[in-house]
Model the fold of this input.
Amino acid sequence: MEKTITHTYKRLYVVDLTVYGNGACDRTCIWEWAGRDVNNKMACYYPDSNNDFLSELSFETKGISVTPKSKLFVSSECKVSRDTYRNSGYSITRDKANANIIVVPDIIPRLYAWKNCNLVAVNEDKEKLYLVRIEKHGYETGVDLGENEFHIAENFLESSMKLTVDKTSVSDLRIWFLPKCETLVDLMTGNKLPVPYVQESKIPITASTKISPETLVLWENIEDENLLVRTICTSDWKDYPITVLTLLAGFRKDTNWFNPATGDFRRILQAIGYNYTIWYYNDEDRALGFLQGKKISPKDYEMLQNYIYCRLGVDQNGGFISPAQYASLPICIQRIMNRRIAVKPFNLPERMNCVDLMTVLRK
Done:
């Protein structure tokens, strides 16, 4: 991959400049960009290409074979715990030079913020970073910009604002905001060691806990949320993401699972599609609730069905349940379960009105 420029900063600004035909330049707008997406991050981009470096970086860390007993250097920014890797048979080293594999945080484009601009500049102590957007007077921002407009803008930034401008050969830059991570910087700037750099979720994990219908019913009733979090992290949850989502969002929905989450568990919540929307809006709001837009594998669906049957007290071939048992299921689970309606005789024990009769029959 091409070399990437990276910047760390304390404060981030977006600057709009207007360049005029007579060579003048004005700063028309400047605002500070703050927030979770960009605070405590590093800005990264290709200075000489319109290619999206993040997709290339993500691709580069895929498909690398990780053999058992590999010696891993795990970046401190990774969310998977070192104990999880140790329990899977890997050894851990704190010296990158001794590692067979460098483990870096997951690079998933949808999780990170980005912004397009024309130039990038920093102040003297490099604590302030500026993303510069240029408008040619009489044109839309970024349209019909030539070498002359960039030269005027650079001179203005350097002379009037006392900034240092990054050298670039392209006019359209996409700046990504990634976690501050030394090993990622090594990978992006071409200073990597001659060993594979692998995203944390690509390291095969040996699950010490095997999920089963009985396990899920047990998890549903564990009172210690932190214990449940640790147990799920060491399980084969990757085979059953929708089943685990159903447990957390459907049958233990009174807990916001981001509260007891470790870094490792937050990664799992993202992977199974659990988010703040699920916590604030239950499945009454939409027909498919927390399953909206989800895809489920045959193996996962079989486990989900068997889990439902187990908690309802019927065997894996199905069976009869009461209307109250059926109504206890989240609406979205009712929508995806194979079901039929059966009728059976009922002997009226005494004379009663119809409302009382319906109450008795629902039990």
Notes: Residues 298-312 form the longest helix (15 residues). The mean pLDDT is 86. The longest strand covers residues 11-19.
